[in-house]
Amino acid sequence: QWGAFMPGVPDLTEFPHKKFGRIVSSLWRNPSPDLLTYAYGGGLPALREALAQHLALTRSIDCDPEQIIITEGSHQAIDLTTRILGEAGETAWVEDPGYWGARTILQANGLHTVHLPVDEEGMRVPDAVGTPPRFIFVTPSHQYPLGPVMSLTRRRQLLAVARQCGSWIIEDDYDSEFRFSGRPIASLLGLEPDAPVIYMGTFSKTLYPGLRVGYLVLPKPLTAAFQAAHAELYREGHLMTHAALATFIAEGHYAAHIRRMRMLYGRRRAMLVNLIERRLGPEWLHRDASMAGLHLVLTMPPDMDDLRVVEVARGKGVLTRALSRYYVNPEGRRPGLLLGYACVPEHDIARKFEVLLESLAEVARKPAAA
């Protein structure tokens, strides 16, 4: 799952492996026995300390290290949250279109998912709530997959509904590090004191997906229960990786890497936007596209089969994903393509885009048989 134009994948060739490797080698030269045994409840304290400092600077999140739980990616974070705070039969609001992985885990844990449409301000909160949701799962920094950044008004509205209904917002701060213009809006967790928010992040987009390290930031009253459940359910390890990552963050390498990649991805995004507007027209860019994230959404005529375009493009060596696959409600479903630009070198973007244009033209010439 890497190459033009696979969405959600960073440029793995740009990872500073030499710096990270030196840190790992240093740890292995004289490893502490504490790093080779069973994990602490919630993850290595040094990593939690480094993350607390990083989040305070970058996301306006004021938390103690003890409020952070280190997980194996976002799926485990969602699983842990819903196991502890939810019960089978309760309701969870999710975005439509939205991230299939979150929806799958919520449903696997017995929750009834209600799929709410997304507009240019993010998840649309219904006028009449009906059954109060136990969870509200959102990607406010860069909605996946359409791309809008949730407005401040909508964020406050969502927080008000959560307080009124006794709900927990699961804030997946997806792609918050990659915003290419303007000042970022504060996270939901950092927006109001004592917000009913479980904050979730990972290193999959900033470093590399195979690292499999994510984290939760919890309200203080929940920390003990989460630490105990985390230890009992998953028996975590990987403390050497935690220690290396903690040093990588504390020495400033992580922040420097994000700054460098933000500039690189910004250039690649501009190149792809220019190609789309010149070769297809600005109307092919999704109306909710924001100056953030690692992919763009290419809109398509309503009668074009985006699944076939994906199949034809794959046969020509270009990877993408069909927008229609992310919808649940058929009345809102729209065809389109998710075009990831992060992992495409600048010298390859135009050539790969020509292949994509050929695939679009081929599907347009040969519509699917009835």
Structure description:
- It is a single chain.
- The chain is an alpha/beta fold.
- The chain folds into 2 domains: 16-252, 3-Layer(aba) Sandwich (Aspartate Aminotransferase, domain 2), CATH 3.40.640; 255-363, Aspartate Aminotransferase, domain 1 (Alpha-Beta Complex).
- 40% of the residues lie in helices and 14% in strands.
- It contains 11 helices and 11 strands.
- An 8-stranded mixed beta sheet has the order 1-8-7-6-5-2-3-4, sandwiched between helices.
- Strand 2, helix 4 and strand 3 (112-119) form a beta-alpha-beta unit.
- The chain is globular, with a radius of gyration of 21 Å.
- The relative contact order is 0.17.
- The model has no long low-confidence stretch (mean pLDDT 93).
Offer a quick outline of the entry:
It is built from eleven helices and eleven strands. The protein has 370 residues and is α/β, with parallel strands linked by helices.
Mind summarizing the main beta sheet? 8 strands, mixed
**Total strands:** 11
How big a fraction of the residues is strand?
5-15%
What is the count of distinct domains? 2
Question: Termini separation (Å)?
Answer: 32 Å
Mean of all residue-level pLDDT scores: 93
What's the arrangement of strands in the largest beta sheet?
Answer: 1-8-7-6-5-2-3-4
Shape: globular
Cα Rg: 21 Å
CATH superfamily name of the largest domain? Answer: Type I PLP-dependent aspartate aminotransferase-like (Major domain)
CATH class of the largest domain: Alpha Beta
Proportion of helical residues: 40-55%
Low-confidence stretches: none
Enter the CATH topology name of the largest domain: Aspartate Aminotransferase, domain 2
Can you name the CATH architecture of the largest domain? 3-Layer(aba) Sandwich
Number of helices: 11
Order of helices and strands: HHEHEHEEEHEHEEHHHEHEEH
SS class: alpha/beta
